[in-house]
Amino acid sequence: MKTLDISIIRSKFPQLDRQIYGRQLVYLDNAATTQSPLCVTDEIIRMEHEERANVHRGVHTMSQNATASVERTRESVTKFINAASSQEVIFTSGTTDAINLVASSLTETFENGDEIILSAAEHHSNIVPWQLAGRYRRLRIKVIPLLPDGSLDLDAYRNLFTDHTRFVAVAHASNVLGSINPVKEIVAEAHRWGVPVLIDGAQAVGHTAVDVQDMDADFYAFSAHKMYGPTGVGVLYGKHSWLRRMSPYRGGGAMIDHVTFDKTTFADLPYKFEAGTPNFVGIAAFAKAIDFLREVGIERIAEHERELLKLATDGVAQIEGSTIYGTAPQKSAVLSFNLSGGSSFDVGTLLDKLGIEVRTGHHCAQPLMERLGITGTVRASFAIYNTAEEIDTFLAALARVAAMLR
Q1: What is the mean pLDDT of the chain?
Q2: Containing H/E element for 14?
Q3: Which one of 23, 256, 282, 290 is at 20 to 30 Å from 39 when CA atoms are compared?
Q4: CB atoms inside a 10 Å sphere around CB 189
C-alpha cells in the first residue's frame, strides 16, 4: 500500500490552516462534521454560478445540466455502497431525515404490541423517530445491552426476538464509544426471523468500506457532511422490494405521477420519496467528496485513522485521572473520555483556548450516558487530514488541562 502524504491531503483543506486564540487549529470533531476539501467547495461555487436551476422539471439547458449533476451523484453513491440499482438510493437532508422516513412510512402497517429492537448505544436520531412512530400504535422498544468494553451483547440480542418483533435498527458504529458493530451478523439473525434491518451508517461510511449487498441490510442511512461533503445532504439506501411497498414520507412536487383532488398516484423509485426541490447544489458537490474518498482510498483512510486512534488512546490512558469509555477491539476513529476534577464542558472549553477543537456533552446519546453513569464525555475524533503531530499537541494540551483541574 502506497504511503500517504498527509501534507498533500491537508493542502486540499485550507480551513485547517487557521488559528484559534492565536494557536494553530487542531480539529478533532470529525465525528460531528468533517471539513470539506476544495474540490467540494469549488463544486458548490460552480453549481451556484453555472447550474442554479430547479431539477427534474425544466426543459431548458440549465435545468437539464443540474438534473444531470444530481443523477451523476446518485450513480456515484450507488457504486460507492454497491447498491443493486440507483433506484435504491434516495436523497434526504441527512441521516436523521432518512431514519425518520423509514420510521414514518414502514410502521404504517405495524400493530399495537409490535416490537422494535434498538441498541443501548444509539444516537437520538435512531431512538426518537421510533418513539414518535409508536405514539399511535403502542409499539414496544427493546434494547440490546452492552458488554463492558462497549460492544453489543449478541447473545442478549438473539434472545430479544419474539413473534411480535417487526424491525431492528442499529448503528454501524457508535458515535460515542466508537464500537464497530458486527452488522452482517446482526442482519443475518434478524432475517432468520423474517425481520428487516436499518443500519445507521453515519459514523462508518466515510471510514470503512460499505457493501450493502454483502451486508444484506434492508436500509442503510448516512450523511454527506460526515464524509467530507456538504451539509444538508444525506442518503437512504433501501432494498427495492421494501421501498416499492412503502408509502411516501412527504407529499409535494416531483414525487407524483398524477394528481387530482380525489386521488394522487406517485412517481417511480427513487423519486416518490424526494418531494420538493432537493438540495441540488449540495448533492452535486457530494459526488466530489466521494471522488476524494475514492482517490485517497477507504482502506488507507481506515489504516491511518487506526494509527491515530492508538496514539491518542495510549496517550490519554497515561494521563492521571483519565477514564476512557469504549474499549472494544474493533473501533472507529472515536475516543471518548473524562478527566477527574472537571466536567467534559470544562475540559472542552480549556482545550479550545489551546486551539484544540473537540466535542463535549452527551453527544445526542443520553440513554447511553445514563447506562455509563455519567452526564457526558469529551470526544476526540479523527479524519484523514489529522496527523501524529496533532495528536502530540492534543495530548500535551490535555496533560496541561488535567494538571489545572487537579
Answers
A1: 95
A2: none
A3: 23
A4: 19
Catalytic residue list contains 364: yes
pLDDT one-digit tens code per residue, 86-141: 999 999 999 999 999 999 999 998 999 999 999 999 999 999 999 999 887 789 99
Same domain, 24 and 53: no
Catalytic position from the list 32, 298, 364, 369:
364
The reported pTM is 0.96
Set of cell numbers at residue 28:
478533532
Report the distance separating Cα 303 and Cα 306, nearest Å.
5
Last residue of a domain, one of 261, 294, 327: 294
User: What is the DSSP annotation of 258-300?
Assistant: EE-SS-EEEPPTTGGG--S---HHHHHHHHHHHHHHHHH-HHH
Nearest to 239 by CA among 256, 258, 220, 254: 220
Burial of 38 (0-12, 13-18, 19+ CB in 10 A): middle
What domain range is 153 assigned to?
A: 41-294
Question: What are the φ/ψ torsions at residue 267 (nearest 5 degrees)?
Answer: -70, 165
